[in-house]
Each structure stands twice: as C-alpha cells, then as structure tokens.
Amino acid sequence: MDGQGLPGGPFEDVAPLTGGTQNTLVRFRRGGRGYVLRRGPRHLRARTNDVMRREARVLAALGGTDVPAPRLIAACPDEDVMGGAVFYLMTPVDGFNGSVTLPDLHRGDASVRREMGLNAARALAALAAVDHEAAGLAGFGRPEGFLERQVRRWTSELESYGVLDGYAGPEIPGVDEVAAWLDAHRPAMWRPGIMHGDYHLANLMYSYGGPEVAAIVDWEMCTIGDPLLDLGWLLATWPDHGGPGAALAGPLGAAGGLPSPDDLVAAYAARPDAVAGRDLSSVTWYAVLACFKLGIVLEGTHARACAGKAPKETGDLLHGITLALLRRARALIAA
C-alpha cells in the first residue's frame, strides 16, 4: 500500500466479510480511508491467482462507467507479497444482500421490492452497454464462436463426471432434448460484450436507503461473450412459485412483490446501447441455455458427493435444483 502511494498509518477496524463460499474478503481502514481486500482462499486452487488477476482487470475497466460495481483501488499481481496469493484492494460497498437479509424499508414495501427487481435488470443493461474494447478488455476472452461452443462445452462437462467412482451417471430427464433444441435454435445475430457469468440476486448488493443496486459483486466468472446470456441467467434463477431461484433469492424472493420475467426483459430493453446489435426476441433461448449450463455445473457437486468428495446433503440439494432447472428449460421450450 505504501508503494502505491495510499494513505499510511495503522490498520483499523479489521474484520472479515462473510457471504462468499470460496474467496477471502477482509474489510479495514487505514489513513482515514476504507478498503476491502480480496484474495483466494487459505488453500489456493490451481487457477485462483489467474482469476484474481482477471477480476482486478475487469473492475479497473469498469471504473469509468456507470456500472454499479466496487471500484478497484490497487492490485498486486505479484504472488510473493502475500505467501503465494494475488490480491487486490477495492472500495467498500455500503449495502446489503437481499438473499441474506432484508431491511424494514424493503421488507415492508412491495413497490420497493418491485423496483429492486427492475434495477437488477437495469444494472445488467449498464454492463451490456460497455464497449469492452474501449474499456481496455480486448483479448480478455474468446468471443469468436462463443455461442456455437456452449452446448458442446457443457455436454462434455457433464460426461466428464462419469470418471468419479460412485457416480452412476446423470439422471436428468430432458437434458438431451434441451441440448438438441439449443443447437437447433441458436441465434444467428449477437454482439460480444462483458459478461458477469453468474448474474443472479445473490450477487447483488442493494442500497439501504432504497431499491438501487449498490454493486454487482463476485466477478470471478467474468469474460467476454454474449451479454444476453447474463440476462438469461437472471431469468433462469428468478424466484417464482418456489422454483429453482428460490434458494438463491432468500428473504427477497420469499417476500414477493418482484416483477415478472417479462418486466425484467422490458427494463433491460429500455437501454438502447445495451440491446443494439442483439436479438432480444431470442431471450427464451438464452434462458434455456442458462438453465442447461447452471444445471450441469450444479450436477458436478452431486457427482462429487456420490464419490465422497462433497457432503451428501449438499449434493442431494443441488441435484434437486438441477432437476428443477431442466424442468424450467423444458417448460420454456414448450411455451
């Protein structure tokens, strides 16, 4: 921090931030300024440091935009400073996560909760509107052939679970039918942009004073791809009638009053620079792809649980969500 020219002095008000399941976040103050430090877990995984470098690069690129996200203060790509871990410092977010808690203002007013939902779509549209090349993210991902390789990529992932001892193979009704439909109905037109990669209510912080999105968090899955897949992901995980999104939405989903999926799409579409060159008439395809992809990702934990590499109750829970996601995908196709 001294080498970056940041204010000196003792570290004060040091406290861990909870809510994430993998990476480490610590909030503190120094020299009259607040910070959040983010690094990988105590036991680093093979790609953790690369992910931290990518996150820092994206947050730096978003600094001059209207995307609600933590602002990067400084990054340390050098693994020798913190015992092998890359880390970065970002601005603290003054907000709450609606999947964890709901303040009285938001719990007591359905109109506030409706705006919270619409603002989730608007914040996503702000991200889709960013010119990734102008923001310094040329070469950050592999947008060429992005849509074409999705079904093949995730079908292969599902097949790879078969090497785990104790896993009898995927028992997911409709997965092949959904894969075939996705390949047959792939959109012909799309425009590359920044993708968050895991966009749902649990990865949003809201303002204590109203329905505004204070920050989109957890950027570890970000890449350059088709931003409409983020919109599809929001729709796939949207809480309605106890569907697969209920577990992700927590108190906010349980309180009700959220807008309909059609209202989300309309709020997103209201930003012309987000939808230019993108085919919103294919939004159902993106929602189906999101159900397909997320279901396969969650099935991986179920497969590891069958092999004794993850808790059985967690594996069973996520397998149930996978089945619900594929049911949602088939219902979307049928409709």
TrEMBL record:
Output the CDD domains linked to this UniProt entry.
ACAD10_11_N-like
Matches recorded under Pfam families: APH
Give the top-rank taxon of the lineage listed in the UniProt record for this protein: Bacteria
| Domain Aminoglycoside phosphotransferase residue range list | 14-249
Show the InterPro entries listed in the entry: ACAD10_11_N, AGP_Transferase, Aminoglycoside_PTrfase, Kinase-like_dom_sf
Which protein is depicted? Phosphotransferase family protein
Q: Which organism is it from?
A: Actinomadura graeca
In the record, what lineage is assigned to the organism producing the protein? Bacteria, Bacillati, Actinomycetota, Actinomycetes, Streptosporangiales
